[in-house]
């Protein structure tokens, strides 16, 4: 436990975190993390929560059971909800919810909030607890989890739900839509830079006696080719991160994608500035040696 610095939490394909081990222990005590969750130290390799670290005591499968599955056998409206909540060792575990086509419960309000934050609990998901006469949409009885209340909230936020469909938030969806364009840009830049460098070196080698203008032109075009090639490699790295985000729609993957994209623009801008400096230096040398500028630039 002491060696862990951060822990990611995953439930039904949704990833949140990272959290400190102390925060995970607190979430376990509050019922926000259960044996049904998966935990990871790097966001890539995952283990069942009761097998990861020592957040849960090691007990036999018969003793541990699947409390949520057992509770789902208690029909909402009956008298079994209170007993299941006691077995769950959480006095506030009184909510049932239909998420991802399955009934879960009883769970605490903290767990319902975690479901909502992970986009597992939708505004139109049916929920129930003791005292309610029927199942109702979550936004009607738990509007604070979505920032709005009542049926009006369901209508006004329907577009947001569509954007989050398929396990993606708006930001991950927008980033994922840039994959094809980024990939083509990277290939085009890399190919153009490579062709420019190879063609210029080949042309220089074919000359019987390269002049000063030939050497200066080669310096300009090779520098441009290298900058384009570097930008192409960076663009391909961004495309690779976007592909990873498409496969693992998690906050961690989205953060890495945005970071790589920011590095692309930073390094591409630095490369362009370096090329402009080289161009200015070459032109100054051309003027000082009475070389025609058009012979250098064309």
From TrEMBL:
Residue ranges constituting the GYF domain according to the UniProt record: 95-141
InterPro entries noted in UniProt: GYF-like_dom_sf (IPR035445), GYF_2 (IPR025640)
Keyword annotations of the record: Membrane, Transmembrane, Transmembrane helix
Superkingdom: Bacteria
Transmembrane segments annotated in the record for this chain: 183-203, 215-236, 264-288
Gene3D superfamilies: 3.30.1490.40
Residue ranges of the region described as Disordered: 67-86
Protein name as catalogued: DUF4339 domain-containing protein
Organism: Roseiconus nitratireducens
Lineage: Bacteria, Pseudomonadati, Planctomycetota, Planctomycetia, Pirellulales
